[in-house]
Specification:
The protein has one domain (3-98). 86% of the residues lie in helices and 0% in strands. The protein has 5 helices and no strands. Helix 1 (3-30) packs antiparallel against helix 2. It starts with a helix and ends with a helix.
Amino acid sequence: MSSAALAAQRKTEDSFPMAMYLYHRTLMKLSGNTITPLITNALVSSVLPFWAEYEELDGTDAALSRLSQFTDFIEQGNGSQAAQLLRYGVEKYKKHTDTYK
C-alpha cells in the first residue's frame, strides 16, 4: 500500500476518536464547565486511544446509536437517563479492560 493510501487510512481511523473527543469537550463547554475542558485538552493524547478502543469494542454503528440516545436525553433535559447511559458505557468498557489484567 502506498504511503498516501496508508495516510488516508490512518486519517479515517482517527476521525471517530477525534469526533467523539470534540463532541464531549463541546458538551462540557456548553454546560458552563470551564475547568474540565482544559483538563481534557491536556489529556487528549490519552483520551483518543480510549475512544478508538470504545469504537472497536461495540462498533461504530452501536457507538453512534448510543451517542444519539445520549444527545436525545440531554435535549429532553433528562440528565438522569443521560448519566445512566454514560455509566453503562463506562462499566462496559471497564469490564472489557479487566480482561487484560
